[in-house]
Specification:
By secondary structure, the chain is an alpha/beta fold. The protein folds into three domains: 236 residues, Nucleotidyltransferase, domain 5, CATH 3.30.420.10; 32 residues, no CATH class; 30 residues, no CATH class. The protein contains twelve helices and nine strands. Strands 5-4-1-2-3-6 form a six-stranded mixed β-sheet, with helices on both faces. A three-stranded antiparallel β-sheet has the order 7-8-9, with no helix packed on it. Strand 8 and strand 9 form a beta hairpin. The chain is elongated.
């Protein structure tokens, strides 16, 4: 038995809220769901190729929205969602890990997968889980590039909960992704209205009725804890985030000096201390010599013209 999870996002490139939401069900149940979705949601006049919540709302086709949520209720599929406020993300995470993580997509995706695992644990499910995401221009390629090392770093008990490598598909021809789009858009709208103490739109109120939902609102405090965890893990493994590495390269003379000073401060009398030399820029222009007619002490010569820079003997 395999669980199939379909996920989509809402708020990418926005300034308020970002949401990743998805639907979980066993693989054999998705075929019947897709048939009903096609018949009751897409083929209803005027027929549409795909259900895009923003387009359906713009056209005020609220009957189609009601039909779509009705199909989800019929199958009692569980939903998972992760929401975050963009301001919280910008304050805590942006600029602290690496440029690929400077958009909410990947942190939200990681927390979404974690919530799916928690759903399995809460429901006593121990089956491999296949993930399918809506196709993205850049994010899809990046997820594929990091999936193997990301999976290998997971504990065995968590690793076995993931099945095949994540897939990325276009929503046309994939009703489960369209259902995830509806949930992500609706959750985004709910968070947007709640943050501004605005009443919900009537067509939103009943979207989630009868749909089991596991929802994480990832606030600033949890993001800070996540960042601390990433840094702790890197310390344990002896590695740096990309931004930490770049900061080190820009300031390695100060970092090395501080490290050397700390070693000296902690050294016991008579103890040999191994210090780290500080690489100097531009040394290729000079040559270290032991002595020359001008000076009998180690000193530098300028390579161009073999100019001696040593002090003459007094």
């Amino acid at each position: 038995m395999v669980l199939k999870v379909y996920a989509d996002e809402s708020g990418k490139g926005g300034r308020d809220v970002f949401v990743m939401a998805g639907v979980l069900a066993r693989a054999e149940d998705w075929a019947s769901f897709s048939e009903d979705w096609q018949r009751l949601v897409l083929d209803v006049p005027p027929a549409v190729k795909a259900f895009h919540m923003n387009e359906i709302v713009a056209s005020k086709d609220f009957a189609r929205i009601k039909a779509a949520s009705g199909v989800l209720r019929k199958y009692k599929f569980s939903a998972v969602a992760v929401s975050m406020f963009i301001d919280d993300f910008n304050v805590v995470l942006k600029g602290n890990i690496g440029p690929k993580i400077d958009t909410p997509y990947f942190p939200a995706m990681q927390m979404f997968m974690e919530e799916c695992v928690k759903w399995q644990i809460a429901h006593g499910v121990d089956e491999p889980m296949d993930l399918t995401f809506d196709e993205q221009l850049h994010e899809s390629d990046y997820l594929q590039s990091i999936w193997t090392p990301m999976l290998s770093a997971m504990p065995d008990a968590i690793k076995r909960k993931f099945g095949a490598r994540p897939a990325h598909v276009n929503d046309v021809g994939h009703p489960p992704i369209q259902a995830a789009d509806m949930l992500a858009w609706s959750m985004h709208r709910i968070e947007f209205c709640n943050a501004r103490s605005q009443p919900l739109d009537d067509f939103i109120v009943g979207v989630f009725d009868g749909i089991p939902m596991r929802h994480l609102l990832w606030r600033r405090e949890e993001m800070a804890a996540f960042l601390d965890y990433v840094r702790h893990q890197n310390t344990e493994l002896g590695r740096l985030t990309q931004y930490e590495g770049e900061h080190y390269l820009r300031n390695r003379d100060l970092v090395i000096t501080g490290s050397n000073r700390l070693k000296l401060d902690r050294a016991k009398p008579g103890e040999t201390v191994r210090l780290v030399s500080i690489p100097a820029s531009g040394v290729g222009r000079f040559l270290l010599v032991d002595k020359c007619p001008r000076s009998d002490m180690p000193h530098l010569h300028r390579r161009s013209g073999d100019e001696c820079l040593g002090e003459p003997p007094k």
